[in-house]
């Protein structure tokens, strides 16, 4: 029997709200009772005072396991390069910015020199202005060109919200420049009647990689005048382009460079990134051109108080009698309520769309008990909302109409929400880079700020709140992407050939893997060689072959029965687990039951209801080894890395009571299996190793399964991934290895680099995994160590002590340097 752990769907149910606190021997905050009366929002209490108020009351202070104080920093000014147009300098000064920070001036200098540059400084350090000033100056020069169009700039953002926000900022800053700067958003929300104007007249076009891939590049003849004059390509929040998504975007940018060269242009790339390791290396891999980095942050920073917060255990017990810790969702909702009552402007970042909805609903209910008018000042913000809903929320946040927001990472990326006093982070976001990006949303006007990481009942979160050095004493991660992934490269070669026939001269642009792929594409009758070029042969759009977000197909529309109203969308990859027939679906605080999932038409029909339960999908997974790239001995066992095929099928769902999590029943589902070819790391153990670890057949499956769960939970500490990006399978006797085996695989076709990173850091990764299990205070296993919220087998069987003994024996024989080769 195989035990599986899948990278799909988030199961986050409302936890008990009555708790029995558990005291930890950790630093305690001072007690300071809040009168729970809204304070004046114009005042800004110090972050320490805000934290003291949050920690007031019985048991609250004991939930703070660590408080980190990041001291304030003075800023360093410079002057703009003298080549910047005086009108642009005047416009910046009119906006209240007399002098640039030193890093802004350096970025402008590189841009004017025609050098591609990445600015990798902290949140609110003025990265936007660093690239905007040289861009506006160049557009102003171009406005005087005889052809009237002059220079153009293309701006890419990972989200529509960020592009819309930046368009507002550009319009405000460039207002004194008159019609010389004509910014416009061009994305899926742009009305058809406006698109022609954008193509013909806009000289600062703001879009996203999806629209560039599907809309602009395939229609490049209609964009010829824009591309011919393209001087700058701005790539904002470039650290988000990692894994499969980043690999796709890298190939989209190579297609853009190829078409620009066709029209006689060679744009300079200006990239903005959160603080990351080796930003110039990552930016160069993304764009395919050499990139200079500016990483010395010269902006001032207010004091940041960063607290680690562990919700208490409750009196209740979950699966297999495991102690139940209060969920990060419920705890964050209470903290957000308290902050709003204090008048503290706050955002709570949540991992899942469902979690954002739940936090908003709970906070609204709590606030209504204090002051009914306050309940209208908190809302949810997530992907899947309709465009007009997102815009309305963004306006309300800008104006201060909203005091609190429960948001997914859709709001993390650069949207200007200055004036916030506090950020709550419901669960570790997957990387230290993302953690600091979210924390930096508060204090954006230079004032002090509070950030609180609320731990989920999860091995990694539990490890981090009790090992703060893993967060605060280690550098942020490098960005992992692999543009040579054949599953990524092949569809982009087809798209490029459809845009312009591919020639031998183009192959160097797309990388060395082209030489092997082109004959395969020709054999598949996707490309045909005529003379010295490859041509696209089909009537279909070649761009539709590549799903750059890796979502597995077109989104599923969620439609209300009776009214036919479109509520939103769900990613295709998550549809089987989240909107299957009978699933409970949340949207803007309302609860719906899914009546039908039509996979052919990608539609889920829902009806409003108030069931007293949540739903959790259950599935089965099998895995087969296709090819072993490399393996090293670990004692008698082996550590391996290679290609695998994973077959998964959602087979049923559980109904769980909202308050207790009690299973009310299980219903069968008839959904088709899905197959994934990807990359994996796996390790095997022998009979002698099992004997040495005192593991018999009766506990072997539980020990392997527990080690698999915990290792998946800990991998994001070593690779720039989220636990939902990876999956796992454990098998007491696998048919390909003929040994007990644990697999951890990338949840994306062709791999994303995460399993490779795990292979290269295996000793440190599995050592941390063993430590996380062994140090947990539970007796037989709980969500903080070996239970998983997305286990397709209902966390059965699991054996905590067996997992510790198994990993101890495995690590005892592990070499000090178990692997060789490139570490991503």
Describe the structure.
- The two termini are 33 Å apart.
- Helix 9 packs parallel to helix 17 and helix 22 packs across helix 24 (762-774).
- It is globular, with a radius of gyration of 27 Å.
- It is of the alpha/beta class and 824 residues long.
- Helix 6 links the parallel strand 5 and strand 6 (204-207).
- Strands 1, 26, 27, 28, 29, 30 and 31 form a seven-stranded antiparallel β-sheet that branches.
Distance between the termini: 33 Å
> Sheet with the most strands?
7 strands, antiparallel
Estimated helix fraction: 25-40%
Strand content: 15-25%
Mean pLDDT: 86
Tell me, briefly, the overall form: globular
Low-confidence stretches: 1-42, 818-824
Helix count from the secondary structure assignment:
25
In angstroms, what is the radius of gyration? Answer: 27 Å
- Derived from helix and strand composition plus strand pairing, the structural class reads alpha/beta
Number of strands: 31
Give the topology.
Blueprint: E1 3-5, H1 47-54, E2 64-70, H2 86-94, H3 102-112, E3 117-120, H4 127-142, E4 152-156, H5 160-174, E5 183-185, H6 192-201, E6 204-207, H7 209-216, H8 224-228, E7 230-235, H9 243-262, E8 268-273, H10 279-287, E9 292-294, E10 304-309, E11 313-317, E12 323-325, H11 328-341, E13 346-350, H12 353-370, E14 378-381, H13 387-399, E15 404-407, E16 422-426, H14 432-439, E17 449-454, H15 459-466, H16 469-472, H17 486-499, E18 502-503, H18 504-510, H19 514-523, E19 527-530, E20 533-536, E21 556-560, E22 566-570, H20 572-578, E23 584-587, E24 590-598, E25 603-608, E26 613-634, E27 637-657, E28 663-668, E29 674-684, H21 687-692, H22 697-714, E30 726-731, E31 741-746, H23 754-760, H24 762-774, H25 800-812
Parallel strand pairs: 3-8, 3-9, 4-6, 4-7, 5-6, 7-8, 10-17, 13-15, 13-16, 14-15, 16-17, 21-25
Antiparallel strand pairs: 1-30, 2-10, 11-12, 18-20, 19-20, 21-22, 23-24, 24-25, 26-27, 27-28, 27-29, 29-31, 30-31
Helix pairs in contact: 2-4, 3-4, 9-17, 11-12, 17-19, 22-24, 22-25, 24-25
């Amino acid at each position: 029997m195989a035990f599986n752990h899948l990278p799909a769907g988030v199961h986050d149910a409302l936890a008990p709200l009555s708790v029995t606190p558990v005291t930890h021997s950790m630093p305690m905050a001072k007690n300071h009772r809040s009168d729970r009366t809204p304070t004046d929002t114009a005042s800004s209490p110090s972050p320490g005072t805000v934290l003291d108020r949050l920690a007031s009351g019985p048991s609250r202070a004991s939930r703070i396991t660590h408080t980190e104080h990041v001291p304030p920093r003075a800023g360093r000014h410079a002057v703009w390069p003298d080549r910047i147009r005086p009108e642009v300098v005047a416009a910046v000064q009119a906006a209240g910015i007399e002098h640039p920070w030193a890093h802004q001036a350096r970025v402008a200098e590189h841009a004017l020199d025609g050098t591609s540059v990445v600015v990798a400084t902290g949140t609110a350090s003025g990265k936007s202005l660093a690239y905007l000033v040289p861009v506006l100056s160049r557009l102003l020069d171009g406005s005087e060109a005889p052809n009237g169009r002059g220079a153009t700039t293309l701006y890419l953002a990972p989200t529509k919200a960020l592009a819309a926000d930046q368009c507002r900022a550009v319009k405000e800053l460039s207002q004194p420049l008159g019609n010389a700067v004509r910014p416009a958003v061009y994305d899926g929300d742009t009305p058809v009647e406006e698109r022609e104007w954008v193509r013909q007249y806009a000289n600062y076009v703001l879009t996203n990689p999806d629209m560039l891939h599907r809309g602009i590049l395939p229609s490049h003849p209609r964009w010829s005048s824009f591309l011919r004059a393209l001087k700058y390509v701005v790539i904002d929040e470039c650290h988000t382009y990692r894994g499969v998504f980043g690999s796709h975007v890298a190939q989209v940018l190579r297609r853009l460079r190829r078409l620009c060269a066709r029209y006689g242009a060679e744009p300079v790339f200006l990239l903005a990134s959160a603080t990351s390791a080796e930003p110039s290396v990552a930016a160069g891999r993304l764009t395919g051109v050499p990139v200079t980095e500016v990483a010395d942050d010269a902006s001032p920073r207010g004091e940041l108080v960063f607290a680690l917060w562990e919700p208490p255990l409750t009196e209740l017990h979950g699966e297999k009698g495991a102690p139940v810790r209060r969920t990060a969702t419920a705890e964050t909702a209470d903290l957000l309520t308290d902050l709003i009552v204090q008048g503290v402007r706050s955002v709570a970042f949540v991992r899942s769309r469902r979690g954002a909805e739940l936090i908003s609903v709970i906070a609204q209910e709590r606030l209504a008990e204090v002051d009914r008018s306050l309940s209208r000042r908190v809302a949810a913000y997530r992907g899947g909302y309709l465009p007009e809903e997102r815009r309305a929320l963004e306006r309300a946040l800008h104006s201060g109409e909203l005091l609190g927001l429960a948001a997914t990472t859709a709001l993390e990326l650069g949207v200007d929400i200055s004036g916030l006093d506090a950020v709550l982070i419901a669960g570790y976001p997957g990387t230290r880079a993302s953690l600091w990006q979210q924390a930096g949303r508060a204090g954006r006007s230079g004032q002090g700020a509070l950030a609180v990481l609320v731990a989920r009942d999860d091995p990694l979160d539990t490890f981090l709140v009790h090992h703060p050095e893993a967060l605060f004493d280690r550098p942020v991660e490098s960005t992992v992407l692999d543009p040579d992934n054949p599953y990524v490269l092949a569809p982009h070669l087809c798209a490029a050939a459809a845009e312009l026939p591919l020639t031998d001269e183009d192959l160097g642009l797309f990388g060395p893997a082209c030489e092997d792929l082109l004959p395969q594409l020709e054999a598949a009758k996707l490309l045909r060689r005529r003379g010295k070029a490859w041509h696209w042969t089909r009537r279909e759009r070649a761009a539709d072959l590549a799903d750059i977000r890796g979502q597995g197909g077109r989104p599923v529309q969620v439609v209300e029965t009776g009214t036919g109203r479109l509520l939103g969308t769900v990613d295709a990859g998550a549809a089987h687990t989240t909107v299957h027939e009978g699933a409970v679906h949340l949207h803007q605080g309302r609860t719906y039951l899914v009546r039908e999932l039509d996979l052919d038409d990608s539609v889920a029909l829902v009806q409003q209801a108030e069931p007293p339960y949540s739903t959790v999908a259950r599935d089965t997974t099998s895995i087969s080894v296709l090819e072993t790239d490399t393996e090293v001995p670990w004692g008698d066992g082996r550590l391996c890395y290679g290609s695998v095929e994973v077959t998964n099928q959602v087979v049923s769902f559980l109904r769980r009571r909202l308050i207790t999590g009690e299973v009310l029943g299980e219903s069968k589902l008839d959904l088709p299996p899905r197959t994934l070819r990807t990359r994996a790391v796996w390790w095997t153990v022998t009979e002698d190793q099992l004997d040495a670890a005192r593991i018999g057949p009766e506990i072997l499956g539980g020990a392997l399964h527990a080690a698999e769960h915990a290792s998946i939970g800990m991998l994001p500490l070593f690779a720039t991934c989220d636990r939902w990006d990876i999956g796992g399978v454990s098998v007491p006797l696998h048919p390909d290895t003929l040994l007990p085996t644990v697999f951890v695989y990338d949840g994306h076709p062709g791999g994303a680099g995460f399993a490779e990173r795990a292979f290269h850091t295996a000793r440190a990764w599995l050592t941390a995994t063993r430590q996380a299990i062994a140090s947990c205070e539970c007796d037989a296993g709980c969500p903080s160590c070996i239970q998983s919220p997305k286990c397709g087998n209902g966390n059965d069987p699991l054996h905590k002590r067996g997992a510790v003994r198994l990993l101890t024996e495995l690590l005892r024989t592990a070499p000090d340097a178990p692997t060789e080769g490139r570490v991503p």
